[in-house]
Amino acid sequence: MFTTGSKLFVGAAALSTIGSVVFAITTGGPTGFMGTIGFITAAVVFWFLAGINFFTRDGSAPAMEQGVQYTSSAAQPPVGRSMWPAVAALGVAGLAVGVVSTPVVFKVSVVVILAALVEWMVQGWSERASGSASYNASIRQRILHPLEFPILAAVGLGAVIYAFSRIMLGIKLEYGRILFIILGALVLGVAFLFAFKRGVSKGTVAGVSAVFAVGLLGVGVASAVQGQKTIEHHQGLTPDVCLETASEDKMHHADEDANRGVSAEAGVIASVELQSNGVLIARNAAVVQGADNFSEIVVPRSSTVSIVFRNNYEGEHRLTARLGTFGEEPEVIQCTARIEEGQEQVLVIKIPKSSKASTSTMMVMVPSLPGQEIKVLVP
Amino acid sequence: MERSNSNMSTLGGMRPSRRVLTAVAVLAGTVLAGCAENAPQDLFEPAGPNARKIDEGLGGQRFIFIISGIVAAIVIGAVSYIVVKFKDRGQDIPEQTHGNPKLEIALTILPAIILATIAVPTVVKVFELNESDDAACVVNVTGQQWWWEYDYPAQTCGGITIKDPIITSGEMVIPAGVPVQLRITSRDVIHSFWIPALNGKRDAVPGRLHPLRMEADNPGIYVGQCTEFCGLSHARMRQAVVALDAADFQTWVDNQLEPYTSPEAGTLAAEGESQYISQCSRCHQVNGLTDSEGNPVLSNPDENVYSGSAPNLTNLMTRTGFAGFTWDLITEECRNELWNAPSEEFGDMYLAGVWMNTPEGADRPVCFNEVELREWLRNAPGMKPMYANPAQLEKTGGLYRGMPNLGLNEQQIDQLIAYLLVRK
C-alpha cells in the first residue's frame, strides 16, 4: 500500500513528531522552545512530503497498471552501497563524544547527521524514482550537486585557510615570509606546468593536489597543536617615552611600533618644523601671507585635528604634545615616534577643554632640544 | 466613434481653458516667487570675488542656467506639442518605425556636446575657486548641532593685529575687501557652511579641515544656512558673515579683547552674574569671569554637551543674533534698518548692536529684542527642537545636544538678562 518514498517520509515524520514531544517534555527554557518548534516544523514538512509521495505513487504514473509489482520503479532493487548510514552513525557517535567533551564536536556532529540524513533520503528516493538506474543517478545529481559543490568548496577553502593561518601563526615572522614566497612560487609553478602540459592526466593533477592538500592540512593541524608563537606587546608611546625619560631600549621598541606615515592631510591644522638650525617653528596649514610663522597654535576645543611634524635637523627627534592637566588627572601627553632628518610624522589630537582650565601649559615641544616649544591655545 | 466625438467636444468645451488657467497660475506663481524683495540668500546677487566667479562667465551659474533653460524649454515644448498634437482621438495607429541610425547618432552626439560645453569651463572654475594662496587672514569655523563657532588665531588679519585668539559664534566678522581663509570642521556630525553671496558650500566634517576662501567687497551682513541635514534643528542652523571696513574691524577686534569687568555690586546685573555662574557656566564660557574667591570660572561643556562645546558668551551683545543665529538680538525694525543700511553706515550701526538708535545716557537699549531672549531662557527646547530631554539621553551617555530647559523663574531671567546686556 505504502510506496517506498512515502515509507521513508512517514518514518522521518514519525521520528520528528516523537522528537518534538520528547524535547518539549525534557528540555525547558528558550532552547526547549526553539527545539520543539524545530521538530514540529520538521514533522509537518515530512508528513506533507509523505502525503505527496503516497498520493502520486512516488511520482510514477504507471504504478497502478497491471503487473506493476514487477515493473514499477518502487519495485526496483536498491543499487550499490550507501555510505550515508555509516556517516550518520559517525555523527551520532560524535554527538555522544561532544556531550562529554567540547560543544564544537557536538555542533559539528549535528551538522554531519543532518547532512547524512538529507543525502540518505534523497539517495533512497532517487534510486527508485524510475526503472532506469542512470536516470535515477542523474536526478540525484541534479538535486544535490548545486548544494554539495558550493558547500564542499567552502569547507575545503576554509580548511586550507585555517591550516595556512595556523602555520603562519606558529612560525617566526622571517620564516613566514620565506615560506610564503616558496609556497606561492610552488603553486604558481605547478599551475603553470598543468596549464601548459596538455598531456598531464587527470589522475596526476588530482594526485598532486591531494598530496598538497593533505600536506597542508597535516602541517596546519601540527601547527595548531604546537600553538601560536609569542607576540611581544609594547606599551606604545607612553608619557615617559614622549618626554624621553624612558630607557633607550623602551623608546627604541615604542618608536619601531609607531606608525611612521603621514596620512591625515585633510585634518592638518598646523605643520611644525624643526628647522635645520634646530629652531622649532609652526606654520598654519592655510597659506596666509605674512602669517606663516606662528609662535602658537590655536586649536578649536573638542575637535579632532592633526599636526604634521617635520624634522629638518640632524639626528632623530620626536614631537611631544603636552595637552594639559585637568583636575586630579595626570597630564595628557602624546607624541610622534622619533624620526630622522628629512622625515615627517603626523600627530592627531583632540583637546576637550579650554587652555585656561589646565594647570599646566599646553605646548608641543622637542624633548631632545630643551627650549624648542610652541604654545598650544584652546580658546 | 461616439466616444471620440465626445472627447472632441470636451476638448472644445470648458476643460482646456481650465487647464490653461491652472498652467498659467502655476507658471506665474513660480516666476513671481523670484521677485521677493527680502531674499538675502539670493544666489544671483554675488557680493564677493568668489561668488562672482561662481555666478559669471563661462562655466558660471548664469551660463549653465541659460543652457539648461534652453534645453528645458525645447524638451518641455516638444513634449507638450506631441502630447496635444498626437493625443489619442481614436485615429488609426500610424506606421511604426524601428531604428534610425542617423537620428540616434545625432541624439547621442548633441547632448555630449552640450555636456562638454558645460563641463569643461565648470571644472576649470572649480580649480580656480580652490585657489586661496592670497588669503590674508585665517578663521577656524567649527560646526556642531546646531550652531557655528568661529575662532581667530592670534595673527595679522588684513593688516590688523589680533594679539590674542578671539572666539565668537553665529556671526563671523571679517574685514571687507580682505581674502579670508576659513578652515571648516565639525565636532559631531557633518554640516555644510554656505554664505551664497560670498562663496559656494563647503562641508564641515569631523576630523577634517576644509579650506574655503571668503571675501566681501563691501561692509554688510551676508547670511546663509547649514546645507547638510544634521539632525532635528538643521533648519534652524543659520549663520552670517559680517564684513566691516578696516577701522570698524579694528574696533571690533579691540572690543572682543577687552578685559572682563564685573557688573557693579548691588545691581541686577551683578545678581545676574551669580545666576550665570550657577546656571550657565557649566557649558558656556565668559572669558575673565571669576568667582567670589577670585578663581576663574571655567566651563566644562565636554562633560555636559555631546559636541563638547557651547557658545562663548563673553561678548554676546556685540552680536545681532543668538541660538545659532536663528533669532535676532535686535528688534525686527532695527534689523531691517541694519540689513538695508548703506555700506558706509553699516559698520557704526553694527558695532552699536542692540544699543543702536539708543539716546545717550539711556539705561535700556532701544533695539534689544528682549521678548525672544526671555523666551529662550524660559524654555530653549520649546523654541528650537533639540535633544535636550534629560530622560532621553541614553544614546549620548547623558550628554545634551542643544540647550536644556533650565527651569528658571522670572526673577532669575530678569537677572540673567541684565547680566547678558552688559556682555558687550
Spell out the key features of this protein:
heterodimer; A: 379 residues; alpha+beta; Immunoglobulin-like; 3 domains; five-stranded mixed β-sheet; four-stranded mixed β-sheet; 9 strands; 11% strand; elongated; B: 424 residues; Helix Hairpins; 14 strands; disordered N terminus
Q: Beta-strand percentage of chain A?
A: 5-15%
Order of helices and strands of chain A: HHHHHHHHHHEEEEEEEEE
How much strand of chain B? 5-15%
Oligomeric state as shown: heterodimer
- Fraction of residues in helix of chain B: 25-40%
**What's the end-to-end separation of chain B, in Å?**
83 Å
Helix-strand makeup class of chain A? alpha+beta
Structure commentary:
The complex is a heterodimer of chains A (379) and B (424). Chain A has 379 residues and is of the alpha+beta class. Chain A has 3 domains: 4-155, no CATH class; 159-226, no CATH class; 239-377, Immunoglobulin-like, CATH 2.60.40. Chain A contains 10 helices and 9 strands. Chain A has helices at 4-26, 29-55, 68-71, 84-100, 103-126, 133-170, 173-196, 202-226, 239-242, 248-257, and strands at residues 268-274, 280-284, 296-298, 305-311, 320-322, 333-335, 343-349, 363-365, 373-377. In chain A, α4 (84-100) packs antiparallel against α5. The radius of gyration of chain A is 36 Å and the shape is elongated. Chain B is of the alpha+beta class. Among the domains of chain B are: 2-7 and 39-130, Orthogonal Bundle (Helix Hairpins); 138-256, Cupredoxins -  blue copper proteins (Immunoglobulin-like, Sandwich), CATH 2.60.40.420. Chain B has 12 helices and 14 strands. Chain B has helices at residues 2-12, 15-33, 49-55, 61-85, 101-130, 246-256, 268-279, 332-339, 343-352, 370-378, 380-383, 410-421, and strands at 138-144, 147-152, 155-157, 160-162, 166-169, 171-175, 180-186, 191-193, 202-204, 210-214, 220-225, 238-244, 321-322, 327-328. Chain B has a 5-stranded mixed sheet with strand order 5-2-1-7-10, with no helix packed on it. In chain B, strands 6-12-11 form a 3-stranded mixed sheet. Chain B is elongated and about 95 Å long. Residues 1-13 of chain B have low confidence and may be disordered. The interface between A and B is large, with 30 and 42 residues.
